[in-house]
Amino acid sequence: MEKTNGKKTTPEQRAAQEESPLGVAIEGGARLASGVITTGASLARDGREATSSIATATLDWLDATQRAGLRASRQVVERVDRLADDVITWVERLALSGVHLTRDTTQGVAEVASRATLTLVRPSDEPTVRAA
Q: Which residues, in sequence order, are CB contacts of 17 under 8 Å at separation 6+?
C-alpha cells in the first residue's frame, strides 16, 4: 500500500486512477514532459558537440595556415639571403676585376713610359738630326 496525501491507496485504486481520464492525462503529460526534456538535452548535447567540433576544426585550420605562412616566410628569407649573397659575391668580383684591370693597365703604361724615357734619355751612337 502506498500513501498519498496521508491516505493509503491500494494497487487496485492506483490502477483505477491511472485508467481514469485524469490519470491518463497526467501519465501522458508526464511521459510527454519526460520526452521533451530528454530530446531537449540531446539536442543541447548535439549542438555542443557540433560547436566544439567546428571550433576545434577552425583552430586546426588557423594553426595549419599559420605554420604554412611561417614556412613560406622562412623560404622567402632564405632565398633573399642567397640572392643577397650572390649579389655581394658578384659585386666583389666586379670590383676586384676593376682593381686588377687598373693595376695591369698601370703597369703596362708604366712599362711603355719607362721604355720611352730610356729611349729618349739614352745616348745614341748616331747623331739625331732635328728639323728646324
A: 9, 23
Whether 131 is in a domain gets the answer no
- The answer to whether 1 touches 10, Cβ cutoff 8 Å, is yes
For residue 1, being part of any structural domain is answered with: no
In tens, the pLDDT along 79-121 reads 999 999 999 999 999 999 999 999 989 888 888 888 888 887 7
Burial of 12-35, coded b for 16+ CB within 10 Å and e otherwise, reads eeeeeeeeeeeeeeeeeeeeeeee
Considering the chain, what is the average pLDDT of its residues? 85
Q: Is the pLDDT of residue 20 over 80?
A: no
Strands 2-4 and 7-9: antiparallel
> Residue 67: inside a domain, yes or no?
yes
Residue pair 26/20 in contact (Cβ under 8 Å)? The answer is no
Q: Does residue 19 fall inside a structural domain?
A: yes
Domain with 28, as residue range(s), is: 7-118
Number of domains in the chain: 1
pTM to 2 decimal places: 0.47
